Amino acid sequence: MIWRIRILALLVVFALAGVGAWLLVRQTPETGAGSVGGLVVDAEIGGPFTLTDQNGQPFGLADLAGDYALVYFGYTFCPDVCPTELGKIATVIDLLGADGERIAPVLITIDPVRDTVEVLHDYVPLFHERLIGLTGTPEDIRAVAKRYRVYYSKVESAEFADYLMDHSSFIYLVSPDGRVIAMYGYGTDAGKIADAIRRHIQG
Ligand code: NI
Known about the structure:
Oligomer: single chain
Number of strands: 9
Low-confidence stretches: 1-36
Distance between the termini: 40 Å
Strand order of the largest sheet: 2-1-5-4-3-8-9
Bound molecules: nickel (II) ion
Strand content: 15-25%
């Protein structure tokens, strides 16, 4: 009889876990927040924008034609964090295989004065053949960064090309309709990001 009680107890546990998972999933659309494998995202973050790509052409999320985007705000002179995170984005896309084809990697510069179209044109292929580099006027960049809650600030530096940019570092997963559905903080493992994105895309 004991094994029957144990099986019954297990069934109850599974049922409760199921209800819990259902409540969590059900909650997501109501709050407008996404949280699968990343930080909880406020529904107000993100949205469409139009900037200039590394070929001098206007580029907006609508140009992705139904694809997802992995968006990173950084700058080409960054000595450490940005190259690490851009390399990670490339790794994530490779890890995703066929699903990775549905994701456009995007770098938006937060140093538009130095990151001209020409500078981005030379820089982005170093990380991924499909990486899109975006620049614009300082005002345009300021407006887009604000909507994505990106912090950045100039820091004088005698060592590095006059100045560095202090900046927040998040990789944003943007859905085909332009919503930020997840964000991954600096240091998040590429494999974990890839697993989370796979759940978003296939779920
Ligand atoms: Ni950086």
